[in-house]
Structures are given as C-alpha cells and as structure tokens.
C-alpha cells in the first residue's frame, strides 16, 4: 500500500494591517482566489485528504477553509508555524491518514519539499515554493513512521498562477 502527501504552502497573505503580527496575518483577495483554485484542482484530480495537519497561523487556517475540501477536521498546531524541515518530517511521521495534507510556511516547506522527494519535478518554481504551491507526493509504504528523506515520488506539482491567470 502507499501513502500520499499533499504538501501546500499557505496562500498569499495581506500586509495592509501593520498592527497584526506575522502569526495573525490574513489572506488577501488573491490568496483567497488562489486557495479556492488549488482546492478545485485537488478535487478535480481526486487528491482528497483524509487527514490535515496545519500550522495554526491565521493564513494557514484561512487557506484550508478557502480550499473548500472539507471531509475531515484539520489539526492546527503551533509546532508547524514557521517549522523547519525536521519538524515537518517529525509531524508527518505521526500521521495516521492515508492521504495527508500538510499545510505550512516558507522557508521550511520549500526545504522540506526538496528533501523529501527522490527527484524534483521539472518546474521552475518548485525550489522557491511560492504561496499556494502544492506538491502531491507518493510514498511506497503503509506507515508514515517509515518515511524519510528522498523517498517520495512526485505525482503532481502546481502553483496557483497556473490556475488563475
């Protein structure tokens, strides 16, 4: 059996309210539209998570909501707020779903994406992982605890601009 990881960076956040700290920034209009487009793309391709593990930042919460995937109750955790690759891997190794959506932030999520796959997709934006970037990765295991660096096979990669422009 296999496991599928949907790795998504939060959508574009707003910077117009300088009184908000980084953790409390919301999505801007483009971010909401991008998250909706990513959600529609995931549905269209049959990539539906049965577990969601996400940073607890406002913009990641809003990204999940705007994706409109439903189906499961997300786990929002402070441990994934600005998490480094090792923390992301540790959280994923504790997952229980077959298809897990991991929602986080740069720079950690870009570094994690580059380290978790055996071969990066031939896409100019993969390594900088812009807002809303989403990779679908398959692992040849039935236990998340067994995954490690360079073990995932990329099934798909998309950035919102390819869906909205």
UniProtKB/TrEMBL annotation:
<protein>
    <submittedName>
        <fullName>Histidine phosphatase family protein</fullName>
    </submittedName>
</protein>
<dbReference type="Pfam" id="PF00300">
    <property type="entry name" value="His_Phos_1"/>
</dbReference>
<dbReference type="InterPro" id="IPR029033">
    <property type="entry name" value="His_PPase_superfam"/>
</dbReference>
<dbReference type="InterPro" id="IPR013078">
    <property type="entry name" value="His_Pase_superF_clade-1"/>
</dbReference>
